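Prompt: For my understanding, could you write out one protein's sequence and backbone structure tokens?
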Amino acid sequence: MAREKKPGRVRSALQSWLGVPVGLNDKAFWQEWFGTSASGQVVTVDKALQLSAVWSCVRLLSETVSTLPLRLYERGADGGRIAATSHPLYDILTKRPNAEMTPGRFMLMVVASICLRGNAFVEKKRIGTRIVALNPLLPQLMTVKRLDTGRLQYTYTLDGKPRVIPEGDLMHIRGFGLDGVCGMLPVSTGKEIMGAAISAEEAAAKVFAQGMQASGILSSDTALKPEQREQLRASLQAFMGSKNAGKIMVAEAGLKYQGITMNPEAAQMLESRAYGIEEVCRWFRVPPFMVGHMDKQSSWASSVEGQNLQFLTNCLRPLLENIEQEIGRCLLDRDDRYFAEFAVEGLLRADSQGRASYYNICLQNGWMSRNEVRRLENLPPIAGGDVYTVQSNLLPIEQLGRGADSGERVRAALSDWLNPTEKGRSTGSSGE
């Protein structure tokens, strides 16, 4: 049977442009991308996750987003917003997406799929017309193709059984892409960077496996027979490897050992590994210090605060906006009255000083009441805590100088309260 010839990269791109279906698990297409990198490494998602930098970046992004509260709001007539607790999707998004997952685990899987596969697929389970559950799907098992009608068809293949999912029953969250149909696979697009990092890690592991010693040379004044060479190689196995470091080798028959020393610093091994970490962090837009790479990073509080703000603004914010908009498009049916939003203030949960400063500003400017602050801190409300207050020194210019009259009234009321007898006496005398 003749082997089927697979299209090349240019032909595959042309076929995709002409409407030929291209799936996320189409081997004929992805072989052009999931191939061997210039470093000789075959880069896949599973192999890329073995890199500590990739593992840390994906965990940082997915776990950070999973800790942020996701709320569903309704726009009021006055321009404000209230929690849409009566909406059918409120409990699904905030409490229980499906029978097996918490909201945190659900969002963790969604973000991890976007970071590693460039796409996240969530199937909507219905009873009648009402959505009762959201089930995340594995993106590597999904095939996307555009029909002649212009609509997208999603085919999910599990255990060799394909199942067509209608577009209306699926929420497709796309990562960065060029065609608007599917997001690009970060691991395949950055295979050269990750392949070089994998090669550097393997080279370091081999050096440590040899007890930080490179190979050496055994020299002899006389020529050795083939059986003597094989016997010599077998005897040297007892002195090779890190577990045999420190053993003393006896050279017989005039053999002389000359070791080849190699300094890892001189070989630029450490620099290559550090550069690989920075490249992976650059690929995921994560500050290197957040994955434990503190080289050339400032540890000053002001610098760390600025880098945290950069992480929130340049890395997390586009990801959160993408998820929020897809929820509005796929789950809320473009109803402008309702919208989903992540509470980024959840990042301040571990920062007591930051929360105190934020609450203080809100209270002094009348943004929040004291009971609203106490509710965020899981504290019971207090009497009079629903009053919005501002700083008394923030007065209009035309009201300056009017505080004296009010002060006199306060002093008079206090004097009457402290001396009720004199007040009654003065009232009686005036009546006479």
